[in-house]
Structure formats: structure tokens, C-alpha cells
Design goal:
Its main location: membrane. It is found in: Membrane. InterPro entries: GPCR_2-like_7TM, GPCR_2_secretin-like. This protein is mainly α. The chain has one domain (about 1-90, about 100-150): Rhopdopsin 7-helix transmembrane proteins (Up-down Bundle). The chain has helices at about 1-15, 20-50, 60-85, 110-150; strands at about 90, 105. The chain has a two-stranded antiparallel sheet with strand order 1-2. α2 (about 20-50) packs antiparallel against α3. The longest helix has about 45 residues, at about 110-150. It starts with a helix and ends with a helix.
Length: about 150
């Protein structure tokens, strides 16, 4: 959906309908955040599968993942819309090229907080999960090598 909304964004913005442009910008923002949120949930799943292998039972795991994956971006979008729906709109107004318009976040501060900071936090989370998984794999590998040396003797 992110790709679809992105591809039709400039075409829809050429209609010069503020409501349509706000809707498209909100959808683009939502699906972008949802994609990164699901990427973060994949790293958590990776951690659970490779580090916490045994005795990991999370009741209604898929439901909780879906609520987090679709809900956290919705909360961010709702907060932005409650503060001011005019943060979303048409980016440029070029008369020579009507398709240069693009519906997106208009305020830099809102962009940096609701997109850049959000993606940065997910990047930190994914990096932490990756390092944890690598350390776990390395410790399992070193334990296996020590055990095999012991049995060879």
C-alpha cells in the first residue's frame, strides 16, 4: 500500500483538492510508519526465535503483533491530526509542471519528530536486537567448539 499511495500521490495532488491531498498524505505517512513498525516487530520475532528459544509462549502473539504493527502508526498519525490537520498538504505549487506536486508533511518539525525520530528509534531497536542475536550465536558456537574439543580428548 505504501508503494501504491506513493505512486499515485502526485497524480492525486494535481486535482488541487485540499481534503484529497490531506488524505493521501495521511495514508502515505501511515503506511510508511507501518512498514517500519513491522520491520521492528520482525526483529523482535527474530530475537524470540534465536535467543529466547525455549519457554517462550506469548498468548495471542499474532494479535498482539497486529495491534502493535498497525496501531502504533495510527497513534502517531492521530496525534498529528489532533494537533493540526494542516500539517499535511501539497508540497509545491509549480505551474510549469503540474505533476511536481506531492502531498506530504508540510512542517519540518512534525516531519523530524513523526518520521525521522520514529525511524531512528526503530533503527536503534533493530540494531540492539541484531547485536544480541549475534552475541547469542557466537556464544553458542564457542560453547559447541569447547564441547567438541573436550569429547575429542
Amino acid at each position: 500500500m505504501l508503494n501504491m499511495v506513493f505512486l499515485i500521490n502526485s497524480w492525486l495532488s494535481s486535482f488541487n483538492q485540499p481534503g484529497l491531498c490531506i488524505t493521501v498524505a495521511v495514508l502515505l505517512h501511515y503506511f510508511l510508519l507501518a512498514a517500519f513498525t513491522w520491520m521492528c516487530l520482525e526483529s523482535v520475532h527474530f530475537y524470540l526465535a534465536l535467543v529466547k528459544v525455549f519457554n517462550v509462549y506469548v498468548p495471542k502473539y499474532i494479535l498482539k503483533c497486529c495491534i502493535a504493527g498497525w496501531g502504533m502508526p495510527a497513534v502517531v498519525i492521530t496525534i498529528v491530526l489532533i494537533i493540526n490537520k494542516d500539517f499535511y498538504g501539497n508540497g509545491s505549487h509549480s505551474e510549469s509542471n503540474p505533476f511536481s506536486n506531492f502531498c506530504w508533511i508540510q512542517e519540518n518539525i512534525v516531519f523530524y519528530i513523526s518520521v525521522v525520530a520514529y525511524v531512528f528509534l526503530i533503527f536503534l531497536m533493530n540494531t540492539a536486537m541484531f547485536i544480541t542475536v549475534l552475541l547469542q550465536i557466537h556464544s553458542v558456537k564457542s560453547r559447541t567448539q569447547k564441547t567438541s574439543r573436550f569429547w575429542k580428548r
